[in-house]
Amino acid sequence: MPKTVGVAVSNATFHFDKLYTYAVMPDQQEAVRLGSMVLVPFGRGSRARMGVVLACDEEPEHAKLKYLFDVAPASACLTPELLRLVHFLKERTFCTYYEAVKAVIPYGAQYKPALAADGVTPVLQKQLTRHTENSYKLVGALQQKPKPTAKQLAAVALLSGGERTQNEMEAHGITKAVLDNLCAKGVVECSKVNKSIDLYSSIPLKNEPITLTAQQQAAYDALLPGLEDTAPHSALLYGVTGSGKTLVFLKLIERCLALGRRALVLVPEISLTPQMILRLKSRFGRRVAVQHSALNHTERLLQWQMIQDGGADIVVGTRSAVFAPLENIGLVIIDEEQEHTYRSESAPRYAAQEVARQRAAENGSLLLLASATPSTESFYAARNGRTQLVRLTQRYGGNPLPSVQIVDMRAELASGNPREISLAMEDAIRRNLDAGRQTILLLNRRGYQTMAQCDDCREVLKCPKCSVPMVYHKAGHKLLCHYCGTQLDPPPKTCPACGGKLLYRGFGTQKAEEELAQLFPEARVLRMDQDSTAAKDAHEKLLARFARHEYDIMVGTQMVAKGLDFEDVTLVGVLGIDSLLFAQGFRAYETVFSLITQVVGRSGRAKDPGFAIIQTTDPDNPVLNLAAAQDYDAFFEQEIAYRKLGLYPPFCGLCVVGFSGPKEIEVARAAARFSALLGRQAAQQPDLPLRVLGPTPGNIEKINENYRYKLTIKCRADKRFRDLVRQTLGLYEQEKLPAKATVVVDMHSDGDI
To answer: Residue 552's pLDDT is what?
Structure first.
């Protein structure tokens, strides 16, 4: 049993994030192991801090060791694989050990410091109380004297089929009093079990066989050897929108389960989980667990415990589901793999694809990336043979791809149409309404009007805490900052800079909803954006209502663009895409191409042909035209040439180091000093390829009273480079610079900190 342990503590700075040695009390030795959550005395005042055991029987640094305050039960111990992921995140993303621990286990499974009943002794307390329920099993025969009641006979008959919970018994009319009586007789035994929560239990099971088209079958056959082999493999399933990639997933999952292994399915957005859950649950039933941020803490914890206890064969969820405590993984699917939502923007700054690759390597799994518009890096790797490439070139059911019209909004304005919805779009929506068909409109901005501009000095009204324009929201009649949440209520009428008149202009989802109501008073319009989907289960409920044809038109932000499958949608409109075309970051064109291809692909997925309209002030833009033609291969050739010329991924790694603090001059100086320290360290390794750009102000110079600067480093993203950055961070902390500007390192940034 361990006498000493090495503990990583919470709230450590990068510089002090090491293992601290503690002694273990004799009565704790049975409970302590690698991965245990512990409470430790830390620092001069021996304040209670959370920690995790990452080493056992560490050599003490000095003779006088402090003892652990408390140890969590063995059920809260990190599994060996999750422990290895903690080390992996620490090494790859420059986070602290405890930040990594908090990423791999949900909030509800974590602990916090508390005081025992005596009010003095520090102890661990669960963030959420454990939810248990009574479970009953048959252990003896029911005597015939005295004569058993009908309810007792019914209870015994039910339990003869296996153990059941109190809830399940009560659903059959058997009360707790009847069960208590049977327990007293020694016929039934009661135990406490974790409450299981079968989310989405209303989804009916369908046992219809999965029928694949010839092309889908060929894709499945090509991927099967990688699944059946116990060595790790990776593949890219590149299929046009509507080609039926999901059916190939289902068939592979079916085979994976038949092999006695488990599957992990990741989707990029919460709005896409309902449809994926529906497909998996209707096919595989209760053995599907769900992990995403729209679940409340209790639901998420109970699902996590179900996975940890071996009660799930399939886990489906968004980015954080990649850490599910699933063992014996045979298949990892990442749908819409190009999406930026797979990259975490807070510590640890990981990419789900990178973590999935690591887990696939450990488990000997098939990692399957899938998309109609793969990221340039993934397609380049597949083209060069580093990843297996499998194509689906035809739509399911032989449907043609939608025809696309590009509308020049400058011509609309010149012909006297001041509205944001073009005449062509208006006509097409009207025809669609008359035919009883549905329409999806993509608009990349939430809110009502996107900015207030002074008529005299032309200044745009910006957030007082951030260097971004404020957005008018009509429902609350106020201006909001989408970065820090600052509100101006009521909205000002005069310019704070010169006193001139403020004009509200621009076009958000709320304004679009209103304009559609004026043009088509008979149409039922659904708005899907962050504001309308904030409530619990809002995504599912709204999408289900749209599927039931309770709405005619859905207008929304990017969440309406991907993965959704509605038979009656035959028209898609793209409004306000130009702002993305001219966005910063080397992925700007890839993002626009993907978004348009994806949203156009929502149209004409059943028997009726689809049509799409793209509104723009730049109708000759090659990216728009290639997206309209759904010609990914031509786009890739153009994009890869640009990446090579400008030296961007996949031809180099890109690391962005961000600095922020309340005083701009100090942030700028700290960034310059980090750059100098990095240069000094790099000079000792002249063979290390490196190109440092900046420091420059961040794309958004100020957020929530903090000024931002960044360094962009083009590098070979390997261990040598990470060690170099780690050394530089150590020197930065030694010079006490974090007090002037906090520093973050992001190995997965688009360069747009």
So the answer is: 95
User: 448: closest CA among 528, 488, 507, 493?
Assistant: 507
pTM: 0.84
Q: Which amino acid is at 496?
A: P
Rounded Cα distance, 330 and 312, in Å: 13
Q: Is 186 inside a domain boundary?
A: yes
What is the distance between the alpha carbons of residues 709 and 661, in angstroms, rounded to a whole number?
A: 9
How many residues can be counted in the chain? Answer: 753
Q: Reply yes or no on whether the pLDDT at 447 is more than 60.
A: no
Q: Coil, strand, or helix at residue 138?
A: strand
Give the pLDDT confidence of 185-216 residue by residue, as tens digits.
Answer: 899 999 887 666 666 766 778 878 889 999 99
Among candidate residues 556, 589, 587, 594, the one with its CA nearest the CA of residue 445: 556
pLDDT of residue 505: 65
Q: Any residues with CB less than 8 A from the CB of 631 and at least 6 apart, and which?
A: none
CATH code of the domain containing 568? 3.40.50.300
424 shares a domain with 530:
yes
Quote the number of domains for the chain.
6
What is the domain range of residue 176?
A: 132-194
Is 480 domain-assigned? yes
Task: Please indicate, yes or no, whether residues 178 and 228 belong to a single structural domain of this protein.
Answer: no
Same domain, 528 and 478: no
Is the separation of the CB atoms in 269 and 294 below 8 Å? Answer: no
Q: What is the mean pLDDT of residues 62-90?
A: 89
Q: Report pLDDT for 60.
A: 65
